[in-house]
Specification:
mainly beta, Methylamine Dehydrogenase, Chain H, four-stranded antiparallel sheet, globular, disordered N terminus
């Protein structure tokens, strides 16, 4: 289900010959074979993680593309991964309805958090590394104590699956985007709903909070919006060419935002925006192989390294959005971001 959902909104993009200056593909070969649903770079390191449709997580050296560890334990696809700020631990959310905590150094499974009744689509960890936030297809969010595994709060209020979650840098508020077409703000201490920022015409599939904690970027269908979290005011609508936005990533300095999406049935698109004024800085759009709605090189997720110099993208090749994933190859690529 998770794969079908993602494939229905995902974008494809970029051949090496067509890459503009801002997005230079490195020549690292990761040799991935399984469809990748989520990626994460590890802060202050040259390592990165990928979560696969087969339930396996892989740790990579992004200098040379070599595989370091395999994390095995999930019984279904890994939909989301998050890394603690000290770079010691990995959190993973899966279609097996669980969240798992791992040691990155040893690849040892430390704890399995059980409580969701459907797939876990998004996971985040608080900046103090004490709590885990998860969003699920059971329409709820849960806040977990990372040490005890106990559920602190179950956030109820969405009427459809929760696709994306994020936490403000001060660990005070939780934001969630859902297929009920809303973005909600919650108090992390009490678990109470504070406000619904917007009611949209389409599902909210991706969100990202700026480093200063004041604003949130929202991907709604093919529209990217910037909103003030406190006032709920819409500050910018980024007029991109995407039909769908699959992933949003903000540079560590908070100045720029990357959005990826499908431009149309023949093109994938990646766009770079000035976060302050909403102006587009650069767009790259290249044709992809299309035969009867068959897409090549679908990008599922984006992660930016903590130094802001590289972009990691993960996805699949030869994906059919109607029949789902079968006999597909994963794509994991590293791009140099030159600003």
């Amino acid at each position: 289900m998770r794969v079908l959902l993602i494939l229905s909104i995902i974008f494809a993009f970029l051949n090496a010959e067509d890459v503009i200056k801002q997005f230079n593909r490195t020549k690292i070969n990761f040799g991935h074979v399984e469809p990748i649903l989520t990626v994460a770079t590890i802060p202050n390191s040259r390592q990165a993680l990928s979560g696969n449709s087969d339930g396996i997580i892989k740790l990579w050296n992004i200098n040379n593309g070599k595989l370091i560890h395999l994390f095995k334990g999930h019984k279904d696809s890994v939909n989301s991964i998050s890394v603690t700020s000290d770079s010691k631990y990995l959190l993973s959310g899966s279609s097996d309805n669980t969240v798992k905590l791992w040691s990155i150094k040893s690849a040892k499974l430390l704890h399995t958090f059980k409580g969701h009744k459907n797939a876990v689509n998004s996971v985040k960890v608080t900046s103090d590394n004490k709590y885990i936030l998860s969003g699920s297809s059971d329409n709820t969010l849960k806040l977990w104590d990372i040490k005890t595994g106990r559920v602190i709060h179950t956030f109820k209020g969405h009427s459809d699956r929760v696709n994306a979650v994020d936490i403000t840098p001060n660990d005070r508020f939780v934001l969630s985007g859902s297929s009920d077409k809303t973005l909600k703000v919650w108090d992390i201490k009490s678990g109470k709903l504070i406000k619904t920022l917007c009611k949209n015409r389409e599902s909210v599939y991706s969100i990202a909070i700026t480093p200063n904690g004041k604003y949130v970027l929202i991907g709604v269908g093919g529209v990217l919006m910037k909103m003030d979290i406190n006032s709920g005011k819409l500050l910018h609508t980024f007029y991109n060419a995407s039909v769908y936005i699959s992933s949003i990533a903000i540079t560590p300095n908070g100045k720029y935002v990357l959005s990826g999406g499908v431009e149309d049935s023949d093109h994938g698109i990646l766009e770079l925006w000035n976060l302050k004024n909403g102006k587009e800085i650069q767009t790259t759009s290249v044709p992809i192989t299309t035969i009867d709605y068959m897409f090549s090189d679908l990008i599922q997720d984006i992660s930016i390294t903590s130094d802001g110099k590289y972009i990691l993208t993960g996805g699949v090749e030869d994906a059919n959005i109607y029949t789902g994933v079968s006999d597909l190859n994963g794509t994991l690529e590293l791009w140099k971001l030159e600003l």
